[in-house]
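Lab meeting prep.
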Amino acid sequence: MKLSRITSLASLFLAVILSAPAFAAPDARSALPGTINYVEGQVNIGSETLNADSVGTAMLSPGQTLDTGTGKAEILLTPGVFLRVDDNSSVRMISPGITNTQVQVDQGRAMVEVAEIHDQNNLRVSQSGVQTQLVKKGLYEFDADQQAILVFDGKAHVQDGDRTVSVGGGKMVALNTGAELKAHSFDKDYYKQSDLYQWSSLRNTYLGEANVNAASLYAVNGYYGPGWIGPGWYWSPVFGGFTFVPADGVLFSPFGCGFFSPFAVVRSPLFVRFGAPFHPGFVHFRPGFVGTVPVRPAVVSGRPGVVAEPPAFHGGAVRSAPPAFHSGAVHSAPPAFHSDSNGGFHGGSGGGSHASHPMGFHR
């Protein structure tokens, strides 16, 4: 009788373990390249009008065009790559493959944020017959009206016929000028004041917050919990959209927000939001920040929203992450972070590179 009871309990325990992913994501759906992740204002795919209910369900399929009037849209490409479409713009999907992702900007402006990219990714944007391959993480703008390609950060190869030019951060290429294809400098500070740039930066802020929410759902006592099946797009129930969750450590976007893995969000380093009121659980990082931290930072423990004050500041910059906190609510031992002479930050173990799975799309 006793043995039978033990066997029954063991069977029940095994059933719970095997069904854990279903509990972690009860209404899971997949996200593939072309998935619509945000809509505001007038946005259409052909005759279909998109709205908030389209997020996570509507797709921009091969041959289809997304048009905006007074409105904007965010489209997921490969994991960690976001395509954002400005007002009065048109973007056509050429190929939504994982290893071959191509879109075409026909009208207006679009911005591509690349938080992660691999050698196997063939990520291209076409404009006026010119193809641009994005080869490094960074931030890229495509202006079909002004016939310009701008690289804020990163690296791209711009190809026009048999002529290819490499374009690095802070460089742009003017098209259809009649002159030889050539990269030259542009005023990044000026272009950062544009509505598209500011909107993209705000979207990145929300995605950073959504990442903390989503990653924490798959974190259990400092390890990857039920439902975690690798890096990719994960649904944030609180923010009602997909966000990027890497395999390990932390990836910082071109705008400065961190994308944390479940492992890193539990063993969190110093999370600081510069120049804004304190917001528990908010993740923001501005590389190369120099000077006194203007707001009180927070250390986020194993549970988002549980915070504790770090004890030490030195010379106007954060020198290191605080030592472990031990109390009934907070128990966190972040890896070492320190600033160099220029005020930059450097992470210790677990804070940097990680592997990725090219097929990681989940909700």
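Slide two material, second protein:
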Amino acid sequence: MTVATDSTIDSERWYDLFARGTRDWLRHNEKVRAAVRERLADLASEPDVLSGDGERKVQVPVRFLEHYRFRLRSADEEHGVGQGEGEPGDVLRPAQPGDSNQKGSGGGQDEGGLQFVLEFEADELIDWLWEELKLPHLKPKSGGMEEVEYQREGLDKRGARARLDRRRSLKEAIKRRAVQPDGPAFTNEDLRYRQLVRKPQPVTRAAVFFAMDVSSSVSQDERRLAKSFFFWALQGLRRQYAQIEPVFIAHTVRAWEFSESEFFKVTGEGGTVASSAFELVLRIIQTRYDPGRYNLYLFYASDGDNFREDESDALQALQRLTELTAFSGYVETSRLLHHQPLLNSETASLFHEMVKLGRAVDSYGLTEEADVWHAIRRFFTKAAAVQEV
């Protein structure tokens, strides 16, 4: 007799376990998921894919697919299927220009196609994206010791009645009676109790600082690019750590801390002093996040402009900050970059100096929505490479 193994079973055979209607439903869902997966990289870069301004839900438009079914011919139709001459393989009707789902200039009578919006958990999409883009997983350092739930460890002859191990106790009684046939069925010496202990285990923690220049020189489109990048960077880090605390900072000549929902809506006016954001991050780390217990990350977005007299203060603050962070990334949002290989703005020069010092720092220019995932791929790859050193 030949026993089938997993390697010999057709991958499609599992459908046979279900009724025909269920199989059709499963195949339909797989087609929808495949269509979403094919467009994930593009969808993640579009600003309108963000729903809830920081909420962990993502809306994805998907073409509506109907299950096949028999449909009765309407009473006003004179002909049905099978009338007329024809051979197998003949084209019944050539494709017409109006068959595709293209936007027209006016109304029409055809049914056309349908689209509906699916709402996914951001974590689910992030799993797909990491698989599609082959992004590496970060290896966080443990952030100190923390007590967890009781864990089972060994047996003892004494313990609480609720933790009595009946199976092990019966085995002990059988072994005793094997050498003492006339002994009692059970004795207190036969009883075995499960022992529970509290074990401190390392917990991975991270604090992620998102800082953004919201001065009057930053356009709305540039803010949208930065916010889209921040959203996906945050979702990516959330799947890497057991505990993660995001901190959101916006600045002009001064810096303020915001909640997540407020941060994705804030706009400002005035000039740009980058050191105000870096100094605020340092103060928050000093008061709330011990670098010995937290993995610290910084992501900063700006259009590249900075007050010239602030260069020295910003450089010193950034130098102290990058000494504490596991990785720091700078994205420059400017439509004037035109994919320049090296950013040469006032703010970019600060991060270039950190690279020269050997810090875990990288920068990237965002000129359009498609650049968002190029930056995500580069930063996470660079951060993982730094950890391997």
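Talking points for slide two:
Residues 1-9 have pLDDT under 50 and may be disordered.
The radius of gyration is 31 Å.
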